[in-house]
Design a protein that fits this description.
Number of strands: 13
Number of domains: 1
CATH topology: Jelly Rolls
Largest sheet: 8 strands, antiparallel
Order of helices and strands: HEEEEEEEEEEEHEE
Shape: globular
Length: 231
Amino acid sequence: MMQYAFSLAALLVLVGCPLAVAQEDSPKSGEEIVLFDGKNLDQWRGYGQEAIGSGWKVEDGILKFDGSGGGDIITKETFKDFEFVFDWAVTDGANSGVMYKVSLGDNAPYLSGPEYQILDDAKHGDGKNPLTSAASLYGLYSSGDAKPNPVGEWNQGKIVISGNKIQHWLNGKLAVEAELGSPDWNERLNKSKFKDWKKFAVNKEGHLCLQDHGNEVWFRNLKVTKLDKDN
């Protein structure tokens, strides 16, 4: 495992790309906000507590979660309508996720935030179910024929929220389209484990969240653009 981790680290560093510089002024609608500049986690905090757990580390311009624990992390800022782009990579059998419109005060962020699934589809059991495979809207919408790159390679994810409309993208391909409150959404929700979760997917705005699922996962190039017309 140590030899594999070293090889993966070397590969990901070699294929790295320049990171954008954070905006100094308060961004307006349409302006890009760099949430991770490859240097620090100043725009993030822990979910259950403000401090970020020791499992999250910044190394070689990459945000690495080593799987040892530390809890989920969320953006300090909340977002309403937005486009969030991010690169992600996993190790063998790894599972993680990006949740959005998350609120504080619950036992876990998934109680309020829908999830963009991050997964090694080939080796994790969730990869056998289209509703829980990589880039799916976890438990509700399949990612269709959008497929992640093999373990050891970077993927680009994108989440677009505009009003009640949700899109998940994977490596430039549209994976999910959904509309909150639509008949299709309500039918799927009522057949899912979320049906009795009173706070699930009801927030008009909320935090972005990177999940601690106990597996090693890496992120880079985390950027969000506000699409709110009133900001």
